[in-house]
Amino acid sequence: MILPTDIPEFGIKREDEERRDGGCAVVFDPATQKYAVGKQTNGFFRLFSGGVDENEDIQEGILREVVEEGGLHDFLHVEKIAEAFTHYRNTLRNVNRVAHATCFLVILKSVHLVDVQHEEHETFSLHWASAQEIMENWEASNQNHDCDHWIYFFKKAVDRAKELGYDTTSGNVETW
């Protein structure tokens, strides 16, 4: 696979990888100083993420995923944070994936919810956590490097949320 030289690559290459480009969102509520994640029944935290349809704009597709998976829709600020190529095990679909992934920072205006539209394989619920709790969750589950791209994206997004003055409590990302 030919990769652009200006974006990093994460994860472990696996046999039988399916290509599915898409992305994720790091969603932050300034009022509570918490990040929104999907919490699976086994306790694993996941970013709101997914593949993007063929003619769908990447930002529109990722915001659609945030609304469908988390019910969050009242966005104050949306900004592209980073891109990466990633190799990972999609545990919800039970397949190996390779993707060109794009991450967006989403700052919420409010936490008003609409009904979620989970697909059959999406067995998680909206959960609020501190940046430290999210990092600890991923580091405890990252033996196969499936979270490397999310960790990369998350640190960049938290740094940006702090630069913009929204996240005032996360401390120094480099000490995580």
CATH architecture: Alpha-Beta Complex
Gyration radius, to the nearest Å?
15 Å
Instruction: Give the overall shape.
Output: globular
State the end-to-end distance.
Answer: 32 Å
How much helical structure, as a percent, in the residues?
A: 10-25%
* Mean of all residue-level pLDDT scores: 92
Summarize the structure in words:
The protein is an alpha/beta fold and 176 residues long. The mean pLDDT is 92. The protein has a single domain, classed as Nucleoside Triphosphate Pyrophosphohydrolase, CATH 3.90.79.10. The N and C termini lie far apart (32 Å). Strands 1, 2, 3, 4, 5, 6, 7, 8 and 9 form a nine-stranded mixed beta sheet that branches. A hairpin with a 4-residue loop joins strand 7 and strand 8. Helices cover 22% and strands 35% of the residues. The chain has three helices and nine strands, in the order ββββββαβββαα.
Task: Offer a few descriptive terms.
176 residues, alpha/beta, 9-stranded mixed sheet
Give the arrangement of secondary structure elements.
Blueprint: E1 9-10, E2 18-19, E3 22-29, E4 34-40, E5 45-46, E6 48-51, H1 58-70, E7 75-90, E8 95-108, E9 124-129, H2 131-140, H3 148-163
Parallel strand pairs: 1-7, 2-8, 3-8
Antiparallel strand pairs: 3-4, 3-6, 4-5, 4-9, 7-8
Concise overview:
This protein is of the alpha/beta class. It has three helices and nine strands.
